[in-house]
Amino acid sequence: MSSNKNTEGAELNLEELESRVDNLIHTISRLRNENVSLRTRQEDLMSERAALIEKSEQAKSRLESMIGRLKSLESK
Q1: Domain containing residue 42
Q2: What is the residue-averaged pLDDT of the chain?
Q3: What value, to the nearest 5°, has the Cα angle with vertex 22 and ends 17 and 23?
Q4: What is the pLDDT confidence band of residue 30, given thresholds at 50, 70 and 90?
Q5: How many structural domains compose the chain?
Q6: Which pTM was predicted?
Q7: What is the rounded distance in angstroms from the CA atom of residue 15 to the CA atom of residue 13?
Q8: Maximum Cα–Cα distance for the chain, whole Å?
């Protein structure tokens, strides 16, 4: 009887361990997918930021040019 209880206990421990390993595998898979998604989103945001900085610089340059032209007209 004692041997039977040990076998049952070992089987329960093994099943619990197997369940925990399965949960860890699932969690790792989910985190990998999330990580890929976050990296892609970060790249998209960095590209968007670069484009906005470029637009801002262009607008600044055009505005400075217009101010220069207005000042030259004012001087005449």
Answers
A1: 1-76
A2: 92
A3: 95
A4: very high
A5: 1
A6: 0.65
A7: 5
A8: 111
